Amino acid sequence: MRKSHPVRRVVLATAATVSGVVLLLSLKPASDPAAASAAGAVPQQTAAGQAPQGAAQAGSATVTGDAAQTQYGAVQVRLTVSGGKITEAEAVQAPKGGLSDQKTQLAVPKLNQEAVTAGSADIDAVSGATYTSEGYRKSLQSALDKMKTAAPPASGSSSSGSSSSGSAQARTVTGKAVQTQYGPVQVRITVSGGKITEAEAVQAPKGGLSDQKTRLAVPKLNQEAVAAGSADIDAVSGATYTSTGYRQSLQSALDQAGG
């Protein structure tokens, strides 16, 4: 038998060692824990960034302040609140008819903008629309007070948390617009816990004598709707058509709310 030459054994051993090292290096990136962690870091950060945004959007609510009576008519403000901040403000009622129309068109957009910017009722009056501005501030403050009252407690037991969650499930429904001899009447209600907590006429007859009748009748009808919890409310004397249209639109809203 021929014996293996010592130099040949050394060459073979070296070749085997180099092949093993190359094989290990080729396998290392796939099994490197640090590389695997780095690859998964970006998707996790993206998901974490999206969660608060979704929560903020789900936490928005709409609150309507009480109607504030002024010398020229009622002013009523509705707020949209998200994350504890006012994101939108609008006047659902404002003085109308004659010169009041011009003043309302001038003042209300400015007041809406100031309410969002200030985040409170500490807003400046619009020059030339002092009464409207004052009524706006009062209704805005009323809406802010309601928002604070409706906010669930920061902490508490799970049972109380469920109860708060149930009571906070307020729903706003707008009935169909009902045409009357003097103009359309349309009612919006807020329902919570199966009860009407707020009612308002988003449309009512206007112009001439209708303005006076609307200012007289609508606040009473709103109040009766909340008190009765149904469309079985009395007509306001002197505003029969408005009262009838109000009842029909109110019933439409209740039907939509399932009440």
In a nutshell, what does this entry contain?
With 259 residues, this protein is an alpha+beta fold. The chain is 54% helix and 20% strand.
Give the overall average pLDDT: 76
Count of separate DSSP helical elements: 7
N- to C-terminal separation? Answer: 106 Å
The SS-based structural class is alpha+beta
Strand content: 15-25%
Explain what this protein looks like in three dimensions.
This protein is an alpha+beta fold. It is 54% helix and 20% strand. The protein contains seven helices and eight strands; from the N terminus they run H-H-E-E-E-E-H-H-H-E-E-E-E-H-H. The chain has helices at residues 6-31, 33-58, 99-118, 130-150, 158-167, 209-228, 240-257, and strands at residues 61-64, 68-70, 73-82, 85-93, 171-174, 178-180, 183-192, 195-203. Strands 1, 2, 3 and 4 form a four-stranded antiparallel sheet that branches. The longest helix has 26 residues, at 6-31. The N and C termini lie far apart (106 Å).
List keywords for this structure.
four-stranded antiparallel beta sheet, 20% strand, 8 strands, 259 residues, alpha+beta
SSE diagram, text form:
Elements: H1 6-31, H2 33-58, E1 61-64, E2 68-70, E3 73-82, E4 85-93, H3 99-118, H4 130-150, H5 158-167, E5 171-174, E6 178-180, E7 183-192, E8 195-203, H6 209-228, H7 240-257
Antiparallel strand pairs: 1-3, 2-3, 3-4, 5-7, 6-7, 7-8
Helix pairs in contact: 3-4, 6-7
